[in-house]
Specification:
The structure is a single chain. The chain starts with a strand and ends in a 19-residue tail after the last strand. It is α+β, with helices and mostly antiparallel strands. Helices cover 20% and strands 37% of the residues. Belongs to the 4-hydroxybenzoyl-CoA thioesterase family. It holds the Pfam family 4HBT_2.
Length: 161
């Protein structure tokens, strides 16, 4: 399982003096990017393939408060991957210094061709690098339909309001 350890900084605390929701997002992002950079998805490789990651959603579940003073650990597992690598789903779990799970997040994303500005599959070598990440017990092969399972669509505002 891929993991990163973090110290909770003053800037990670909210008005309730516990870990702020923005810190959860930042810790997850840092963990994902650490894994990706260590597995062939560095800036050089991404530029060679005109690739960039995009996040479709992040659903965070908070179980218990966490406060500064002790380190926290964030893990990363692969919950889903499409056959061409275009779509991926990760699970992040957050643990306190005693190994107690205090939050979890399911996030889904994809890969965009930065020239065409369209979603694209991964080259085979990058696909294999991503697919070797530990899988969750409920891992599945993703399809386009999985990216729309919450049936959310944009709703524009009336400019006359």
């Amino acid at each position: 399982m891929y993991k990163k350890n973090f110290e909770i900084r003053w800037s990670d605390i909210d008005a309730n003096r516990h870990l702020a929701n923005t810190a959860y997002i930042n810790f997850m992002s840092h963990t994902r990017m650490g894994f990706l950079m260590e597995n062939g998805f560095g800036q050089k490789e991404m530029a060679q393939h005109n690739l960039g990651p995009v996040v479709f959603y992040e659903h965070v579940y908070y179980f218990k408060e966490v406060f500064p003073g002790k380190p926290v650990t964030v893990t990363l597992k692969l919950k889903g991957l499409s056959e061409d690598g275009m779509y991926f789903e990760f699970v992040h779990d957050f643990y306190d210094h005693k190994g107690r799970n205090f939050a979890s997040c399911e996030m889904m994303g994809g890969w965009i061709d930065l020239k065409e500005r369209k979603l694209t599959g991964l080259p085979e070598a990058l696909f294999q690098n991503l697919n070797h990440l530990d899988h969750t017990e409920d891992f599945k092969v993703l399809t386009k339909e999985d990216t729309r399972k919450f049936n959310k669509k944009p709703r524009d505002i009336d400019p006359m309001l």
